[in-house]
Amino acid sequence: MDPATLIMVLLLVVLVVFMFRNKKKRDRQQAELQNKLVPGVEVMLSFGVYGTVVSIDDENNVAEVEVSPGTVLKVHRQTLGRVVEPVIDEPVADDADSLADGSTDHDRVIDDAPEFGERATSAPVDSTVAKDSDTKA
User: Fold this and answer.
1) Quick one: CATH architecture of 38-86?
2) Strand 50-57 vs strand 42-45: parallel, antiparallel, or unpaired?
3) What is the pTM of this model?
4) Backbone angles phi, psi at 92, to 5 degrees
5) d(C-alpha 118, C-alpha 72), whole Å
6) pLDDT digits (tens, 9 = 90+) for 5-35
């Protein structure tokens, strides 16, 4: 065998090994997801809608998800993308918020910032430029 053929065969073997590893990993993740899917758990559907699982019908591969009080969606079981884990807020140390000048991010307020919905003013327009262009035309 020449070296080029040997390299190609080794590359193919490595590619196949990685394909099988990824498949096993995806299968394991899918099995974990199926074990976590029980009525009452909060999920995100594959199309981005959040809701709470009401019931799962394994025979017909159908799940009922309540997206708001009184609104229940009947979806295919495969659309249950992931189980939403509750986020735990960690306390932030005061030293992490402090800046070099001794102030904190909370102390900084931009005084000249426009209010919500107001238009930000730009640099003042020089009226002499507009007059010069009007006279040239």
Assistant:
1) Roll (2.30)
2) antiparallel
3) 0.47
4) -100, 135
5) 40
6) 999 999 999 999 999 999 999 999 888 888 8
Return the pLDDT at 124. Answer: 55
The residues that bridge with 66 in the sheet, in sequence order, are 52, 72
Burial class from Cβ neighbours inside 10 Å (0-12, 13-18, 19+) for residue 75 reads: buried
User: Distances from the Cα of 137 to the Cαs of 80, 126, 129, in angstroms?
Assistant: 65, 18, 13
User: Which pLDDT tens digit goes with each residue over 74-104?
Assistant: 999 888 888 888 777 666 555 555 555 555 5
Domain boundaries, the chain: 1-36, 38-86
What sections of the chain are H helices per DSSP?
A: 3-36, 94-97, 127-136
Q: What is the pLDDT of residue 5?
A: 93
The answer to whether residues 23 and 30 touch, using CB atoms and an 8 Å cutoff, is no
Q: Which amino acid is present at 68?
A: S
Rounded Cα–Cα distance for residues 114 and 25 (Å): 51
C-beta of residue 66 within 8 angstroms of C-beta of residue 113: no
pLDDT averaged over every residue in the chain: 79
Take residue 72 and report the two structure tokens written for it.
């229940």
